[in-house]
């Protein structure tokens, strides 16, 4: 595949001595939606800020569409659109004025038709002549997105774009992202709403304590690391798991009316047949079976908790993380 962003041995240490990024290696493929997940303080915004030319790295190299962000910073920056977490609009400008200014700052020729298209897609066209200071918080967030798209970037960074916004804007954002991806724009999304990553992303990256601990295709990640659970709903309450079933990964529900069996869905011999056979032998009657697979949120929490354990050696590769799970 054709990489559009390449990050090599990237490190960032602030003047206080805090090391925000540690030897980051990352490749983003052209035209994909890449979701970067991580807890607060993990380094997500620092990484994005360096790629976008807002923060200087301590060490390492970044190229965007073949342009080095230091040597060819004008060309690199021209390909990037950024929707930051914080509201950074000039509150005294109108929406239309800030859109035209933003496009001009990137050296793009006037194209009112493009600006109109962006504003209409974000439900801002009717408010184009209003000052930004008069808008609601959700509308101000929409203006940030519109500004990021004003110069027709090939790469769009969305740093927590739907944090604190209403359901309508979140839905509009998802629809807009799908359209942009279909037009060939590469999208890098950071989010605390893991369902967004599960819904939108082609690949998932997880960053924790300044290190990339895993990068994988979303579907492959969930197949590889996801577990399944079988809930056996019982006719009669149990006080404890029967001794004959103690060798299986079973847990009894709090009310005693269900046995929860956790297993690897990829294994041919998953133990379900043995479980059901022993239940019959023990005269334990059950009335229903229900299976469920772990979500991306479960996987994310497990990965971050694993990387935080002092005994865990995190090398920044998917293979190292897999070996600890």
From TrEMBL:
SUPFAM superfamilies according to UniProt: P-loop containing nucleoside triphosphate hydrolases (SSF52540)
Keywords of this entry: ATP-binding, Nucleotide-binding, Transport
Bilayer-spanning residue ranges: none
Annotated ABC transporter domain residues: 5-234
InterPro entries from the UniProt entry: AAA+_ATPase, ABC_transporter-like_ATP-bd, ABC_transporter-like_CS, ABC_transporter_ATP-binding, P-loop_NTPase
Single Gene Ontology MF annotation: ATP hydrolysis activity
Stated name of the protein: ABC transporter domain-containing protein
Species the sequence originates in: marine sediment metagenome
């Amino acid at each position: 595949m054709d990489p559009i962003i390449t990050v090599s041995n990237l490190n960032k240490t602030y003047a206080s001595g805090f090391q925000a990024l540690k030897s980051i290696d990352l490749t983003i493929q052209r035209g994909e939606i890449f979701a970067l997940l991580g807890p607060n303080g993990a380094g997500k915004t620092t990484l994005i800020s360096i790629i976008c030319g807002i923060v200087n790295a301590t060490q390492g190299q970044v190229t965007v569409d073949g342009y080095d962000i230091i040597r060819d910073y004008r060309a690199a920056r021209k390909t990037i659109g950024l929707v930051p977490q914080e509201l950074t609009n000039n509150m005294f400008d109108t929406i239309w004025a800030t859109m035209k200014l933003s496009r001009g700052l990137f050296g793009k020729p006037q194209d009112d038709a493009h600006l109109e298209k962006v504003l209409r897609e974000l439900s801002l066209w009717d408010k184009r002549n209003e000052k930004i200071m008069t808008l609601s918080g959700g509308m101000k967030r929409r203006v940030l997105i519109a500004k990021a798209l004003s110069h027709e970037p090939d790469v769009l960074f969305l740093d927590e774009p739907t944090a604190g916004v209403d359901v309508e804007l979140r839905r509009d954002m998802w629809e807009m992202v799908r359209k942009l991806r279909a037009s060939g724009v590469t999208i890098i999304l950071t989010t605390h709403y893991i369902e967004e990553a599960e819904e939108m992303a082609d690949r998932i990256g997880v960053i924790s304590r300044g290190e990339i601990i895993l990068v994988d295709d979303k579907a492959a990640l969930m197949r590889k690391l996801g577990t399944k659970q079988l809930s056996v709903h019982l006719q009669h309450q149990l006080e404890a798991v029967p001794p004959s079933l103690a060798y299986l990964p079973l847990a009894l529900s709090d009310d005693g009316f269900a046995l929860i069996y956790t297993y690897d869905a990829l294994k041919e011999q998953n133990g379900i047949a043995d479980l059901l056979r022993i239940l019959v032998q023990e005269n334990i009657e059950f009335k229903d079976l229900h299976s469920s697979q772990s979500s991306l949120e479960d996987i994310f929490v497990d990965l971050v908790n694993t990387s935080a354990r002092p005994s865990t050696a995190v090398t920044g590769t998917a293979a190292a993380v897999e070996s600890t799970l």
